[in-house]
């Protein structure tokens, strides 16, 4: 059903989580425009017609029912009937509703000053409950360029939210620095307020982020009021709501959060960030609490804001599909460190770090019903970071080394250097602008390039 949907709505849901390498979904997240229908209204014809990308004039006249749509298949769409079938052979409906053409990959200039940067950033939480200090962020270098979208990916507890909070100045680092447009963040009240005007945080759960007793207007106006921007406040709030896709804003300003759908609530949260005209948003899991069809609409909004306002974004997610859908670059985090970073098409299609490969191997893939290789071992603990390479207790690459192989000693006892912020093709360990924190990755590149021709360099490992 997911491979060949027979209803346009199923097609949108099936494409909401993209397959890595599917160029049609690169920079083109699938989503469903509009809002769910009002169940109190009697509508003639197909109830999905107002939002359907394949609507026909007859859809609004003819009542739908579940019709046979192939062996053991039924669909409530008139397009499965012979007279409305899109193609004589009844090809998959999804083919007629392809998302718009993928955008070209943007090229980032490494000469330009990054808009937001972490340099050697460390965040340590104090010891508690008999455990030592937690090194949640343990030496991170990361740059976000103007108008660039960077995805920060990694499993639960690896330090993504702590890094995100440190970048907006909500957590004071134990070491290193956060820089905005080349200036180091200081932690006085005035400096933090100024920083947060330019660097805005968007949280995961919009229902929790909004005060249930505050109208949409007050929720969006809160930031400008805190920053003393009282002149032209109504225009500022209306403009932010429009840019966040809540149009016309007059329809929304007087509503309370419970009168909005989850997607609309997330748009209000984003409007609250936009009301301060920031240069960067740091969005912590912005779509993980939303349903599949709304997810694509919010991701499209982030892309549009970049195109229209040159707004840069750090998008935190445990979902690699988010990176494939909208990010220019991706940084993969493990136990407080970035272990691989580079352009999305490099890192996600030619992963070099065993951890990135493991994350990719468990993604569902239409061509493969078998579950991927789930990472074994204990979940990582920032109060007890292993010696040598911090990924070694769980590393499939290390586990696959033949007994007695000298390289194992490197993994077990030699710490892997912290990755610098940006890769260029001349940098040590850099391939096509991506960087990887693994002793064996560089050796693998050399060995594989001697085994395979150009272009097949990583194919054996990537499998
Ligand atoms: N205030 C705190 N005090 C002590 N430890 C903390 C605190 N906040 C986070 N941690 C620990 O720091 C580590 C990183 O947490 P963080 O919330 O940044 O992870 P995450 O990658 O965002 O995870 P998730 O995907 O579950 O949101 C975790 O081990 C967590 O238990
Ligand atoms: S009946 Fe028409 S509007 Fe309804 S799902 Fe099918 S094509 Fe879309
Ligand atoms: S350095 Fe060794 S243990 Fe670490 S990721 Fe590479 S192969 Fe695995
Ligand atoms: Mg988190």
What structural keywords apply?
globular, binds magnesium ion, alpha/beta, binds iron/sulfur cluster, 15 helices, binds adenosine-5'-triphosphate, seven-stranded mixed β-sheet, 3 domains, 13 strands, 29% helix, four-stranded antiparallel β-sheet, disordered C terminus, Rossmann fold, 463 residues
Question: In a nutshell, what does this entry contain?
Answer:
This protein is α/β, with parallel strands linked by helices and 463 residues long. It has 15 helices and 13 strands. The two termini are 26 Å apart.
Plain-language structure description:
The chain has helices spanning 8-15, 160-167, 189-198, 206-209, 216-226, 233-243, 262-274, 292-309, 320-326, 344-349, 354-361, 396-399, 407-413, 439-451, 459-462; strands at 67-68, 74-75, 116-125, 134-144, 149-153, 175-180, 183-184, 199-202, 280-284, 312-317, 329-334, 337-343, 435-436. With 463 residues, the protein is of the alpha/beta class. The chain has three domains: 8-97, no CATH class; 116-337, 3-Layer(aba) Sandwich (Rossmann fold), CATH 3.40.50.300; 350-375 and 386-462, no CATH class. The longest helix has 18 residues, at 292-309. It is globular, with a radius of gyration of 24 Å. It starts with 7 loop residues before the first helix and ends with a helix. The chain binds adenosine-5'-triphosphate (ATP), iron/sulfur cluster (SF4) (2 copies) and magnesium ion (MG). One iron/sulfur cluster binds at residues 7-8, 46, 48-49, 52, 54-56, 59, 64, 77-79.
């Amino acid at each position: 059903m997911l491979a060949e949907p027979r209803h346009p709505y199923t097609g949108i849901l099936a494409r909401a989580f993209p397959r890595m390498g599917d160029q049609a979904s690169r920079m083109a997240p699938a989503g469903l425009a509009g809002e769910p229908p009002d169940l109190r209204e009697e509508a003639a014809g197909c109830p999905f017609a107002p939002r359907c990308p394949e609507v026909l004039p007859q859809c609004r006249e003819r009542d739908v029912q579940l019709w046979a749509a192939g062996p053991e298949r039924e669909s409530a769409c008139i397009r499965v009937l012979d007279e409305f079938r899109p193609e004589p052979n009844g090809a998959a409906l999804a083919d007629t509703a392809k998302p718009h053409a993928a955008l070209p990959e943007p090229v980032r200039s490494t000469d330009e000053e990054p808009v937001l940067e972490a340099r050697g950033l460390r965040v340590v939480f104090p010891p508690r409950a008999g455990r030592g200090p937690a090194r949640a962020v343990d030496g991170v270098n990361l740059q976000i360029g103007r108008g660039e979208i960077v995805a920060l990916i990694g499993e639960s507890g690896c330090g993504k939210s702590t890094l995100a909070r440190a970048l907006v100045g909500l957590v004071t680092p134990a070491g290193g620095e956060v820089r905005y447009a080349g200036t180091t963040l200081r932690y006085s009240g005035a400096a933090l307020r100024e920083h947060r005007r330019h660097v805005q945080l968007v949280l995961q759960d919009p229902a929790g982020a909004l005060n249930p007793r505050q109208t949409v207007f007050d929720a969006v106006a809160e930031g400008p009021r805190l920053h003393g921007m009282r002149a032209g406040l109504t225009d500022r709030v209306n403009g932010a709501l429009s840019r966040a896709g809540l149009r016309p804003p007059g329809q929304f300003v007087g509503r309370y959060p419970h009168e909005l759908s989850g997607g609309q609530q997330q748009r209000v949260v984003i409007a609250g960030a936009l009301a301060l005209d920031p240069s960067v948003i740091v969005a912590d899991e912005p779509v993980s609490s939303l349903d599949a069809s709304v997810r694509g609409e919010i991701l499209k909004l982030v892309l549009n804001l970049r195109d229209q306002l040159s707004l840069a974004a750090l998008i935190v997610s445990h979902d690699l599909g988010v990176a494939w859908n909208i990010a220019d670059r991706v940084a993969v985090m493990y136990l407080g460190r970035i272990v691989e970073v580079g352009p999305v098409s490099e890192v996600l299609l030619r992963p070099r770090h065993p951890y990135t490969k493991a994350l990719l191997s468990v993604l569902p893939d239409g061509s493969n019903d078998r579950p991927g290789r789930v990472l074994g071992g204990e979940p990582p603990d920032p109060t007890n970071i292993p010696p040598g390479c911090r990924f070694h207790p769980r590393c499939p690459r290390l586990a696959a080394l033949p007994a007695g192989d000298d390289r194992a000693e490197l993994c077990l006892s030699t710490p892997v250097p912290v990755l610098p912020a940006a890769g260029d093709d001349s940098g040590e360990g850099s391939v096509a602008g991506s960087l990887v924190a693994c002793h064996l990755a560089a050796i693998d590149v050399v060995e594989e390039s001697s085994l395979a021709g150009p272009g097949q360099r990583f194919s054996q490992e990537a499998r």
